[in-house]
Amino acid sequence: MTVSAKTAALQKADSAHYLHPFTDHVDLAKKGARIITRGEGVYVWDSEGNKILDAMSGLWCVSMGYGQKSLIDAATAQMNILPFYNSFFNTSVEPAIELSALLAEITPPQFNHVFYSSSGSESNDTILRMVRRYWDLKGEKQRKTIIGRKNGYHGSTVAGASLGGMTSMHEQGDLPIPGIVHIDQPYYRENGLKLGVSEDEFGLIAAGWLEDKIKEVGADKVAAFIGEPVQGAGGVIIPPKTYWPEIQRICDKYGILLISDEVICGFGRLGTWFGCETMGTRPDFMTFAKGVTSGYLPLGGAMVSDRVVDVLYKDGDFNHGYTYSGHPVACAVAVANIKLMKEQDIVNTVKNDTAPYLKKAWASLNDHPLVTDAQSEGMVAGLIMLKDKTKNEAFDEKDNVGMICRGHCFDNGLVMRAVGDRMIIAPPLVISHAEIDELVGLARKALDATL
Ligand code: PLP
C-alpha cells in the first residue's frame, strides 16, 4: 500500500530503532507499521487518516473508550500537585490511599488490601513471591509448586511467562522456572469433543485434571492454582459453567490457594466487577491491570485476601516492591476511571444490555460459511474459522488464516485479533448497539474477503 511521505518516514524510523513486543520484525520491515495517531470513543485513526473501530480496546484495556475527559483531567491535576512520590519506608500518597479504599469496596468481601505494580506481569510476579512466603510463614515450606494451565497467559516476565502456558514463550529462555507445572485448558472443541461428552460434563473432567496434578505432585507440595476466568490471549476460551465451581471445590479440598488473574476479566469485562464473580469462585488473590485505568496510564496490582494478609504482614516486612508501586498519577486516573464506571453504572449496563446485545449480534456470524462457535461471555468474544465447515475440518497452521483475516479487518476499518484460527474481540464497554452492529458488519466483510 502506498502511504504519505510522513507515514513512510515514521515507518522507516520505527523499523530502524523500535523493537516491538510480540512482532515478526522481518515482516514489519517489509510492510511497515500501521501508526495509530489518535482515538475517540470506540474509534482510532491511523497516520493516513483512516478511521478504525477498535474492537480490542487497544489491548483489552480501554474499557471506557478514548478521550474520556475526567481521566485526562485527573492525570493533569495530579501531575501538577505531585507527579511522583514513592510509598516505601512509611510514606504514602493520597491517590493510592483513595484507590485502595475504592478497590476494597468494589472487590469481593475477602479483599481489603491491595499491592500495586505497573502491569499485569509484575502483578503475577508479585503473587509468586507472596504465595511462597505465605506458606513459609505457615510452616509449610515444602508447598512451593504453583499449577497453571497450558495456553494460559499471565504475562511476559520470567515468573509471568512461567505461570502462563504458552509453549512459544517457554521455548525462548528456558521456561518455566522450577516449581511451576501446567494442566490442560478447559477448551471443549480441542479437548472435549473427542471425549464425546457434553460441555458440562467436560467442565468437570477438565477441573479433575487439577486434582490429578495435585496427586501427581503431592498434595502437601502444592501452593496455589492460577487461572484466568476466561482465557483471553489464548483465544477467548470460555470454560463450561461447571468448570470453575469444581476448581474451587478442589482447591478447598486440598487447602490450595486460588489466584484469579483478572487482568482482562476484571473491571466489568464479564458483566460483574470481577470475573471470579461471574464464574462463582472465591479467590485468595486477584491480579489486575489494564481496565483499572482504562489503559490511560500503566497500573497493575494484586488484591490480597484477609486470610493471606493476616499471615504475610503479621511479622512486619515483606521485602518486595516497585519504585512505581502506588504511582500517584496512575492511581488518580484509576480513581477517576472507577468513579466514571460507577456514575455510568457501566457494569450493570454491560450485564443487562450491552453484553446480551453483543452475544446475539456476534452469534449471527455462525451462519457464515467459514465460521463456527461464535460465542461471547460479557464483552469478550471469539469465533473459529474452519476450512470446511460441512466436515468440521480445521485449517492448517501454515494456512495462516487468522493473520489473513486480521489483515482484511484492518483494511476494512476494524481491529480484531487473531489467535491461530480464532478471531477474537474485547470492545470498549461503552460501545453502543449501533457500533456493535457496525463491528459485526465489518467482521462479516473481513470474513467474506478471507473465504
Ligand atoms: N494476565 C493476563 C490475563 C493478561 O491478559 C495479560 C496481558 O495481556 C497479563 C497478565 C500481562 O499483563 P501486562 O502485559 O500488563 O504485563
From TrEMBL:
Gene Ontology MF terms in the entry: adenosylmethionine-8-amino-7-oxononanoate transaminase activity; pyridoxal phosphate binding
Gene Ontology biological-process entries: biotin biosynthetic process; gamma-aminobutyric acid metabolic process
InterPro entries linked to this entry: Aminotrans_3, Aminotrans_3_PPA_site, PyrdxlP-dep_Trfase, PyrdxlP-dep_Trfase_major, PyrdxlP-dep_Trfase_small
Cofactor(s) this protein requires: pyridoxal 5'-phosphate
Highest rank taxon of the organism: Bacteria
Entry's family note: Belongs to the class-III pyridoxal-phosphate-dependent aminotransferase family.
Name by which UniProt lists this protein: Putrescine aminotransferase
Organism of provenance: Hydromonas duriensis
